[in-house]
# Entry
Amino acid sequence: MCGIVGYTGHRRAVNVVMDGLRRLEYRGYDSAGVALLDAGELVVEKRAGKLANLTEVLSGHSGLAGSTGIGHTRWATHGAPTDRNAHPHLGADGTLAVIHNGIIENFAVLRRELETGGVTFISETDTECVAHLLGQAYRAVSAERSDRLAEAMRRVCQRLDGAFTLLVVHSDQPDLVVGARRNSPLVAGRGDGENFLASDVSAFIEYTREAVELGQDQVIEVTPQAIVITDFFGAPAVGTDYHVDWDSAAAEKGGYDFFMLKEIAEQPQAVADTLRGRLTDTGEVVLDDMHMSPRQLRDIDKVFVIGCGTAYNAGLIAKYAIEHWTRIPVEVELASEFRYRDPVLGPNTLTIVISQSGETMDTIMALRHASEQKAPVLAICNTIGSTIPRESDAVLYTHAGPEVAVASTKAFLTQVTAVYLVGLYLAQARGVLFDDEIGDIVAALRKAPEAIAKVLTLMDPVRRLAESLRDADQVLFLGRHVGYPVALEGALKLKELAYMHAEGFAAGELKHGPISLIEEGTVVVVTVPSPRGRSVLHDKIVSNIQEVRARGARTVVIAEEGDDAVVPYADELIRVPHVATLLAPLVTTVPLQVLACGIAAARGNDVDQPRNLAKSVTVE
Ligand code: F6R
# Structure
């Protein structure tokens, strides 16, 4: 949700900033803009629409040799996605430029105050308030102070409510970028005679893998030689240094048409990376990262699993697995609803928050609510050092590598893998499953990457099917047991990518209402549980397939190899390898990802950057 990048060093800032924006465009693509310091001049360019529009404008500029600059790619909150509302925004006298990610909640009050004082606004954004306040604060700070711009930023931040990452450059300060953060992400990159600021490390990974994570409510001054951090009141502070263990190739398409296709293909490796070091040869689960004593693990009497969108769907799978293996009651909650309904939780309620980005505001607020009730919070997260793991009591990183496509794929499978690990670990610590039962599941989990790799080889019929569904009006998805969250995930992927009506249902619910949606030719995708597992589930869903077919549905059946019972009822049959019943989402989700991607591409949609969306949603 808005990508920001800042640079100061010895390279042409315009190149570094535009490269960074290209890598951050997944965060928002309503508009893009840069502010560059060029021979004492502040050059600002911004355009509505994708980054390509800005690139075209900049190609018409001669020069732009300066080596300090900032850039922004926007997901609109306050104000329509127009040139005028695009960032950067200028302070009243045009000498400073500001970019912002987040929402200034008290902007209306601030704007009124500024307008009363004679300031004329040219945009509808909350950010422009910050630009004017910074202009005023800068003038108020003594010109003698070497930290004049940082001090102005500190004074302004003290007046702001809400979530913000801010970067500012000033034409009087040619080698300086000042940043600030509260509740929104900001990392610094340490280079040699150059330094970087960005919403995430992918923006500068091409130049350095040494990063500095900023804490809450901090201001950072970056020059080519130094990084100086303080809190909002000027007290010295330190960031946390870390090394990024993936390189720039991981953030490129690598020959695929879309990031999404690349990320789908990376799933066997991503799941293997989630499992790495967490399973022993003797069939145990090792989760030192949970940081819970045997006593605490034994005392847990309830589990909440919280997330948004795809992460919530992963949470629904957690419920099936954790309850089955541990007999602890599990509630799954949409993060945006959690704190508003006064949930019952306390010190023995393990709260698991799931988030790829670690920056989703709804999830952050839910985790804070759980922490306030003294519930221990475990984060399942992909982004190292992001807000959610930082504020949680413990974190299980999924190690999926960067996920650039807006639609989550490998993040989902790795989140599901991580919740299996948590469930097994709890079962092991509480002694509710025999060691050999855990050993069997561990053995099955070890084989999951192989099974996912096998599914990927079986996708040709799905790609053909996607072409043929290009003009479908709607697609319904059915599943039972863990197939139900998979159906929700399949529908979510199709909605967000193909802009098509899609719904996921628990197959048994269909006849309680939704079956009336079915008419001649309606496409119904059904994931079928293994006939080898709890075969009652299998038999029931075969009946459900017959019910929809009898009403004219065109059935797309996803069933394991060798399941012949489904053959007579499948208009299209997609095979997946056998895996244990509870682990089935690791394979059955993959065809649904490929299907959604294929239909979106066939409809000519932007697969990696679907309309109206952003990769991380940093506002409530
Ligand atoms: C769907 C999707 C979103 C995210 C949701 C949570 O493909 O990507 O539904 O899953 O916005 O994001 P994170 O996991 O970053 O908290």
About this structure: The domain at 3-247 is CATH 3.60.20.10 (Glutamine Phosphoribosylpyrophosphate, subunit 1, domain 1).
